[in-house]
Design brief:
This protein has about 180 residues and is of the alpha+beta class. It has five helices and eight strands; from the N terminus they run αββααβββαβαββ. It has an eight-stranded mixed β-sheet, sandwiched between helices. Helix 2 crosses helix 3 and helix 4 packs across helix 5. The protein binds coenzyme A.
């Protein structure tokens, strides 16, 4: 069955469409998580088989207020290129945490992470009535830090030696964005 763009759209940005992840997306996720360059500044845990990733993915709880995971699709060619996740939201506090990554490296530098973040933050503030969105980023992850700063996130703290990679400890910035600050 061919679906229209409207049916497939959950949240539309200028360059990306955010949509729920399908079980068939597990292979792409597994591939991204196996790429050391993509995972350079991300927590990767223990490697899992593709079969285990598929199984975990199919057992994932449905999207809900506390945990919204969307695939990032490039509007130009409808390719699934990464994901964005808004999690830990509580109606009592109106605070949630955001994660993003673009796993298809050939799509880096095309403004997709910026648009995916902006679109997801707008969704959080406007649809979910959030007051604040936070994130953490390794201080050396210059491109990610640049994207977040461009969107209006500000550094609120520096977590010393909380990320270990290649035998070295790295600091992380805690960053935050209040409603009304999104650029
Ligand atoms: C970081 C990441 C999300 C950026 O995605 P992207 O789609 O390439 O981002 P965009 O194209 O929207 O923007 C990248 C920006 O970083 C800038 N940039 C690239 N390398 C940079 C560097 N070394 N220092 C400073 N800025 C840099 C680009 O110039 C661009 O800014 P501009 O639009 O103002 O010119 C992507 O590279 C990624 O997923 N990396 C692996 C996973 C990861 O690190 N995720 C973040 C975890 S906190």
């Amino acid at each position: 069955m061919t679906r229209t763009n409207e049916e497939r759209t959950v949240v539309l940005g200028e360059r990306v469409r955010l949509r729920p992840m399908e079980p068939s997306d597990a292979e792409a996720l597994w591939r991204w998580n196996s790429d050391p360059e993509v995972m350079r500044w991300m927590s990767d845990g223990y490697r899992q088989t593709l079969a285990r990733t598929v199984e975990r993915f199919s057992q994932r709880e449905p999207n809900r207020y506390e945990d919204v995971l969307y695939g990032v699709e490039c509007l130009d060619d409808e390719m699934l290129v990464g994901l964005v996740r808004l999690h830990g939201a509580e109606p009592e506090t109106g605070i949630a945490e955001i994660d993003v990554y673009i796993g298809e490296k050939q799509y880096w530098g095309r403004g997709l992470a910026t648009d995916a973040m902006r679109t997801m933050c707008r969704y959080g503030f406007e649809q979910m009535r959030l007051h604040k969105i936070t994130l953490t980023v390794v201080t050396e992850n210059r491109s990610a830090h640049h994207v977040y700063s461009k969107l209006g996130f500000v550094e609120e703290g520096r977590l010393r030696q909380v990320f270990r990679r290649d035998g070295r400890w790295h600091d992380m910035y805690l960053m935050g964005l209040l409603e009304g600050e999104l650029r």
